[in-house]
Amino acid sequence: LRLVALNLPLSGDMRADFHCFQQAQQAGLITTYRAFLSSHLQDLVTVVRKTDRDNLPIVNLKGETLFNNWESIFNGNGGQFNIHVPIYSFDGRNVMTDPFWPQKIIWHGSTTNGIRLVNNYCEAWHTADLAAMGQASPLKMGKLLDQKAYSCNNQFIVLCIENSFVSDPQG
């Protein structure tokens, strides 16, 4: 399952699932992508189909392994990953080094176990208000689920996860 960043940073008022779907389509990816965010409808840990959570690696856009499987992101260690494996945007830029994302921080709105934090998810990702807060993680810490709260007016990286695996019928 591929983990890919949106092509632009977003504040807390976002239509992230729509952007993930749209940018994946524009990049020629045929599977479904969902935002790597807890929402008012779903905890982050359940975004990927149950049948794909423990048997498929989580890779970047170029197929390099970030995590052994989906479940390993939520084992309580904050989603520790190798910072030397780049996270790419749908248009192929490395969000860790590209200046287009000046703040190397990702929104997630979750606990380290992928459960939604209703007080820290920018009112279900519907506000960029300075007074509202969203849970996010500085990527330089090497964790996707580090626990830091930021004002929703910040523009941070939004990740998308391929939420179901479809094998290539051509083999």
Automatic annotation (TrEMBL):
InterPro entries, per this entry? C-type_lectin-like/link_sf, Collagenase_NC10/endostatin, CTDL_fold
Top-rank taxon of the source lineage equals: Eukaryota
Q: Which residues cross the membrane?
A: none
Residue ranges of every copy of the Collagenase NC10/endostatin domain listed in the record: 1-166
> By its UniProt entry, which Pfam families does this protein fall under?
Endostatin (PF06482)
Q: Which residues form a coiled coil?
A: none
Designated name of the protein: COFA1 protein
Q: Which organism is it from?
A: Odontophorus gujanensis (marbled wood quail)
